Every structure is written in C-alpha cells, then in structure tokens.
Amino acid sequence: MTNLYHEITPEGFGIAIEEDKYLFSDKSDFQTVDVFHSRAFGNVLTLDGLMMVTERDEFFYHEMIVHIPMLTHKNPENILVIGGGDGGTVRELLKYDSVKHIDMVEIDGMVIDVSKKYFPTVSCGLEDKRVSVLVQDAIDFIKGKENIYDVVLIDSTDPIGPGEGLFNENFYNNVKRALKSGGIVVPQTEGPFAQSENMQKTYKLLRKVFKFVAPYTGPMPTYPGGIWSWGFCSEEVNIPVSYSDINIKEAEKIENTCKLYNKDLHLACFKVPNFVKELANG
Amino acid sequence: MTNLYHEITPEGFGIAIEEDKYLFSDKSDFQTVDVFHSRAFGNVLTLDGLMMVTERDEFFYHEMIVHIPMLTHKNPENILVIGGGDGGTVRELLKYDSVKHIDMVEIDGMVIDVSKKYFPTVSCGLEDKRVSVLVQDAIDFIKGKENIYDVVLIDSTDPIGPGEGLFNENFYNNVKRALKSGGIVVPQTEGPFAQSENMQKTYKLLRKVFKFVAPYTGPMPTYPGGIWSWGFCSEEVNIPVSYSDINIKEAEKIENTCKLYNKDLHLACFKVPNFVKELANG
What we know:
Two copies of one chain form a homodimer. Chain A has 282 residues and is of the alpha/beta class. Chain A is built from ten helices and 13 strands. A seven-stranded mixed sheet of chain A has the order 9-8-7-10-11-13-12, with helices on both faces.
C-alpha cells in the first residue's frame, strides 16, 4: 500500500494524501520542515506535520488572501507580508503595477530556501527587485512602525508553534499603527469548520483592535474541513458590497490571471454561512 | 492507533476519519452499506465505501440542494426527490408550508432503513403524511410522467454503481417532461476539484437538455476536495441575481432554521470560481 500523509485534527478527522517520494526533511530553529511529492498535488510542504502548501491547490489560498484586500484598496503601493515564506502571496502581489515595494517578514529561512528549491512556481517572485525578504520575527519587526503600509497580509501558520504570537491583541495593535490611512489588514483566520475555536478567538481579538472586521471564506481542498477564512480589517474601509466599492478595471485584469478569483466572487465571498457569521460575531 | 476510515480518490487524496465503533455493515441488492460512529462527525454512512452522510456535516449538502431551488421557485407545491434515501433532503423540504406532496424515489430500501435507525435527525421527515417513500428505480419511475412536479431534486450517489443511470441525457429528458411550467431541477453535480471530469461530463449532458443551466457551489467537509456543486436547471427560470428573484419573505423564515443558508448566500453561491465556470461551460 502506498504511504499516506495524514493531517488529523484533534477532533479526529482530516485529509490523506498518497506520498510518492520523500524529497526533504529537516528541523529548522522553529519547526520541522518536510517536502514530499504526490501524484494528486505535486510537491507538498508541511511544517510540524501540518499542511502548508501544495503545488496544485495553493492558488485557492493565495488568490484569496491577496486579491480581496488589494482590489478593495484604492491604490496599494507599499505592502507587508507577515509569514508567507513559500512566496505565493508575493507572487500574486507582484501582478499589480501600483505596488512599489513589498516587505516579506518570514521567521524561518528554511521555509524560503525549501520553497525556492521545491516550489519554483510558488516562490518565483521572491527575487523581484520590488521585494525585500526579511528573515526575522514579525513581532519584533512591526514594533514602532508607523504609517507605512497600505495593505498588510498575515499569511501565518496556525496559532500553535511559531505562529502563536501572531494571534495576539498587542501584535494587532502594532500592525494597525503600521498602516497608512485607508489601509487594510487581512490575517488568515483558520478553518471555520475544523478550527472553529481558533477562529472565534481570533475574531474576538480582531474586533478589539479594528473598527471594521468581517470574515470572508473560500474553498481550500488540502486544509481540514475544506473551507477557509480570512479577516478583512480596517479603520476606514468597510467590506465591498458592490462593484463601485472595488477597483473594477484592475479586477477585470487580475481575474484573467486567476484560477479562482473573479469580480463577482470578490463580493460573494463575504456572504458567509450562518455558522461562520456566528463564529466571527460572538 | 485508532482505526481510520479513508475515502481516497483515484488521483490519490481524500479524507480520513477516526472510527470509534462499527455499527452496521451489510450488502443490499445494490451496494455495500456501512455505518460507523466517529467522535468528529457522530454517525457516518458510507455506500460502497464512499462517504454519503455524517450527522455533523450533512446540513451543508441538504440545505444547499433544497433551499436554492425552493426559494427561487414562485410556489413549489409538488416535489420529487430522486435518491436521498437518508431523508435529509425531505427534512428540509418539509419546512415549506407551500409543499403539498413529496415523492421520494430511492432504489435501495436498506439505505432508508439504516437511516431511520442510525440517523434519526436526518430521516425524521420520512414518516410525514405529505411524503410518499417509493422504493424503486427512478429511471423507471420517471418514464412517461408529464407536467407533475414543481421542483425535482436529484440527490444521487456518484456516477458509478447504482447512481450511474441518473447521469444520462435520456433520463434528464424524462425529468424535464415531468416538470410543470416554471419548474426547476437540481441534480448534485459532483465535486469540482476532486471529480472535475465527472462534473464536466454532467454539465455537457445538462446543457443538451435544459435551457438554463448554471452551477452553484458550497463547502462540504467530508466530501473529497471540500467544495461541492449542484446544477440549477430550468426551461423558464434563470438563476437569481437579486433579492427580487427569490421568495425573500420565505427565505428570511428559512434562514432562521439553517446553519448554512441565508438569503445573501442564495445569490452568492452562483458566483463560482473561474475553474468551476470552465468545467460547467466547456
């Protein structure tokens, strides 16, 4: 029988993927980093045994975390990515002519190196001259930063291990201070079905810090539960409810480059299931 | 180690669920029927080893197959359910005062019996006086029926085994003939990520038969890929694009009974990812 990779939640369910071939396994200063090849998903990256990226379905996550805030902002020029060492978020950001500079702050250099070697279609933007790759702890990096970024994307792991400090009121306050007027922050906010408790806690914190906070959701085949959420947070910008609330001309250009994103989905992704609303509101 | 139930697609990925306890296993005239209990999902029903129903996440599927057509139709009185032996679809249909009669045509009586015993919260409507439970092949049942149903829901298994004949042009033509004017048909149309080939074939057939054909999607945690699709098909009714296209007063009542469905999601679920549009259109 083929060897199966499993990610099983504490509740006792999850995903299984046939492993063809082990490609890499090592311990960094922060976590265990593994890469294997699978027939179903191409190369697969896991951190501490938890699914991070697969070549076949990474677009679901990266298109959603990037294009929703970027096409709601009027003119995003200066961007901060926290985490996201695989490079998929940066790749999507580089589609925008308006972007002048991207800081990517990833705590674990091994994730970046592994992505460059085993995920070339994901990490392809990391050498771009508009991108600064900073290997350091975002908790330190963000302290004292004021009025710098138009969009901040928190592309973190789960709130255990190295990602834990990124789900924290003090950290969110520092992120808010780093925003320019009209700025938008989007953290990944866990799976509403498989990590409902994590999600609920995260929204409690986000609502303490930001004026406008709303979840949006999308499918994510290799994350347990199959549905994922991101939090749209801002002091000045509310969620888009019509085409006039988004940069429609740019959205039409971007959707031609995407497997998932389109301008209709942009508005629709905020129309979440009742149980997701409840998790985010209470 | 706890025993794991797996459903692995031919491509080599899928779901895994910890089994607490085996409750039932038998072969009917059509398929192998198994029930086990799991901590994550409560009781779980599989047919020929493929996931059908779990107590915890069945609402995703049943709310979506039922409320989208029912609240788009002006006055649904007479309903046909093809398959759906677990009873979840009938349970959701019985929320409507407008419904005068439901025919449920399920080929496998063992599925009905097992659901009554092990899934009481799913099968609870099957004894209702508005429901006729008919244990027979829907392919024969539908032949020669004309101008009878307002809404037909094809709540079938995958297009292998007993469900195969329900993905067929001739069958769809017979279903169309059984519709009243203004009628709507919704078949489940497989997972766009995990069963993309099945989905594409199904839409090719549906477009040959019905004037209006459009996919809508929703999350489905225990089906491989985590995203599921249904086909909105009609000769007279196009997909809803605004509140005025749905029975908004009834929708507001129904959404209070649902974990997933709400009137915003009703419109949003038709705004599908680019790759889903491509599967349905080509």
